[in-house]
Amino acid sequence: MSTAQATQERSDSLTFSERLKAGTRSSHDAAEAHDFSQALVSGTLPRHGYVALAAQHYFIYSALEEVAETLADHPVGGAVYFPELHRVPALERDLAFLCGPDWRDTITPLPTTRAYTDRIRWTVHWPAGFIAHHYTRYLGDLSGGQVIKRVVQRAYGFTDGAGFEFYIFDRLDSLPRFKKNYRAVLDALDLDEAEQTRVVDEVRQAYQFNSELMAELNRSLALASSSDLG
Ligand code: HEM
After folding, report:
1. Confidence of residue 218 (pLDDT cuts 50, 70, 90)
2. Which domain holds residue 95?
3. Is residue 25 part of a domain?
C-alpha cells in the first residue's frame, strides 16, 4: 500500500470526534501559543486583562447558550444540550465580583466579539455548525481551561471560587467522563462526510475568532507593549 493510500485509510477510519481534533490541531496550537493565552496560563496577565477577557466571554457564552436553548429539541443541535455546562450564571457572578454591582454598564463587546457572536447566532439555521462552536469553547474550558483555573486562582488571589467560577464545572461529577461521553455523542451524530468537513472548517473558524479576539484584547489593553505581559 502506498503512503498516500495508508494516510487516506487512516483518515477514513477516524471517528467524527477524532476528525475534529486532528483536523483542527494546528488552529488549536496557534490559539494556545498566542501571547495572550501564554500570559494567562503563566499567571502574568495583568488583572485588567483577565477582567476584559471575562467580559468578552460573557457576550460569547450568552450567544452560545441562547442558541443552545433554541436548539434544545433539535435532533442535531440538541444532541449537545447540556445545561450543566452553561457558563452565563458563573460569568455574571464573576463580573459582579470583579467589576461591582453595575458591571453590566461597564462592559461592551469588542468588534471581533460582535462578529463571533453574530456567527454563533447564525448557526441557529445550521445546527451542525452550532456544534462546532459549542465543541470549541466548552471542550476547551474542560481541557486547557482547567490548567488556567489553577493558575488564575493563584495569580489573582481568588478564594472560594469568587472571580473564577467560569472555570469551575461543579455540576459535572467527572470532567474526563463528561468529555468521553461528549465525544461519544459527537460520534453518534448522523453527519455525512461533506457535512463533517464543513463542521471541521467551522471549528477552525471558531479558533480564528478566538485568536483574533486575543489580538484585539492585546491592542485595546495595550498589553502587547506592556512589560507586565511577561
Ligand atoms: C493557554 C491556552 C491553552 C492551553 C494550555 C490548552 C491546553 C489544552 C490541552 C492540554 C488539551 C488536551 C486535553 C485532552 O486531550 O483531554 C486541550 C484541548 C482542547 N482545547 Fe485547548 N488549550 C489552550 C487554549 C485553547 C483555546 C483558546 C481554545 C479555544 C477557544 C481551546 C480549545 C480546546 C479544545 C476544543 C480542546 C479539545 C480537543 C479535543 O480533544 O477534541 N484551547 N487544550
Report:
1. very high
2. 34-222
3. no
Q: List Cα–Cα distances, 13 to 9, 10, 189, 193, in angstroms.
A: 6, 5, 16, 12
68 Cβ inside 6 Å of ligand 1: no
Is 57 labeled as ligand-binding? no
Q: Is 24 inside a domain boundary?
A: no
Q: Assess whether the C-beta atom of 20 lies below 6 angstroms from ligand 1.
A: yes
Ligand 1 proximity of 147 Cβ (cutoff 6 Å)? yes
Give a yes or no: residue 64 inside a domain. yes
Tell me how many domains the chain contains: 1
Predicted confidence (pLDDT) per residue in 109-125, tens digit? 999 999 999 999 999 99
Amino acid identity at 95? L
pLDDT in tens, 39-57: 999 999 999 999 999 999 9
Query: Under 8 Å CB-to-CB from 229, ≥6 apart: which residues?
Result: 35, 39, 44, 45, 46, 223
pTM (2 decimals)? 0.93
Q: Is residue 142 part of a domain?
A: yes
Residue in 18, 19, 27, 32 to alter for ligand 1 test, most ligand atoms within 8 A of Cβ: 32
**For the domain that residue 68 is a member of, what is the CATH number?**
1.20.910.10
Q: Is 179 annotated as a binding residue?
A: no
pLDDT band for position 6 (50/70/90)? Answer: very low
